[in-house]
Design goal:
- The complex is a heterodimer of chains A (112) and B (112).
- With 112 residues, chain A is mainly beta.
- Chain A is 0% helix and 60% strand.
- In chain A, strands 2, 4, 5, 9, 10 and 11 form a six-stranded mixed beta sheet that branches. In chain A, strands 1-3-8-7-6 form a five-stranded antiparallel beta sheet, with no helix packed on it.
- With 112 residues, chain B is mainly β.
- In chain B, strands 2, 4, 5, 6, 9, 10 and 11 form a seven-stranded mixed beta sheet that branches. Chain B has a four-stranded antiparallel beta sheet with strand order 1-3-8-7, with no helix packed on it.
- In chain B, strand 4 and strand 5 form a beta hairpin.
- Chain B is globular.
- Classes of the chains: A mainly beta (112), B mainly beta (112).
- Chains A and B meet through strand 5, strand 9 and strand 10 of A and strand 4, strand 5 and strand 10 of B.
């Protein structure tokens, strides 16, 4: 079964606006990762946040993690048309850090 | 560096045929993974290998087999293809579990 679930399934915004995507998961984790997938391509790693971290930044990306709620959010600030892609969260399991489970993703469209 | 490469890029099989998908990485990573991605869904782990010579089942291993005879190669076999195995298959590698994964471009497989 899918471990992570992203919300919303689809998001459409104007260039320059911020985009927020959420992820919920079910079991205890070592870390949570966010990936990006352009149409027809492989996934590209964006950011990793460990279970003992609450917030992490990378360029225009900000990720938060709330282990008590088993949820994470990805914020993309000042979005660009090139940010149009699907975004997935992925979690491992405390019992097996090789067993990665991906959510179904959020499809982000940034209109120029 | 080529990163993670997959062959073939496209494949059409008839029900009952067998084939092997090939994956290679040149980053000296210890862990390798095979995923499938169905329309509108996230990735699901088929098998993984934490080190050369070892393999373990993931979430959806039925109908597949794998081999990791060399550190840089991870092969995924379909024993007797079924239409339900129509999907896009992604190979990935990481230095070890809990680290970011690097993905190949995918193999689009259709089983008629």
């Amino acid at each position: 079964s899918q471990q992570g679930e992203e919300d919303p399934q689809a998001l459409s915004i104007q260039e320059g606006e911020n985009a927020t995507m959420n992820c919920s998961y079910k079991t205890s984790i070592n870390n949570l990762q966010w990936y990006r997938q352009n149409s027809g391509r492989g996934l590209v790693h964006l950011i990793l946040i460990r279970s003992n971290e609450r917030e992490k930044h990378s360029g225009r990306l900000r990720v938060t993690l709330d282990t008590s709620k088993k949820s994470s959010s990805l914020l993309i600030t000042a979005s660009r048309a090139a940010d149009t892609a699907s975004y997935f969260c992925a979690t491992d399991r405390v019992s097996n850090n090789n067993d990665m489970r991906f959510g179904a993703g959020t499809r982000l469209t940034v209109k120029p | 560096n080529a990163g993670v490469t997959q062959t073939p890029k496209f494949q059409v099989l008839k029900t009952g045929q067998s084939m092997t998908l090939q994956c290679a990485q040149d980053m000296n990573h210890n862990s390798m993974y095979w995923y499938r991605q169905d329309p509108g869904m996230g990735l699901r782990l088929i098998y993984y290998s934490a080190s050369e010579g070892t393999t373990d089942k993931g979430e959806v291993p039925d109908g597949y087999n794998v081999s990791r005879l060399k550190k840089q190669n991870f092969l995924l076999g379909l024993e007797s293809a079924a239409p339900s195995q129509t999907s896009v298959y992604f190979c990935a590698s990481s230095f070890r579990g809990t680290n970011e994964q690097f993905f190949g471009p995918g193999t689009r497989l259709t089983v008629l």
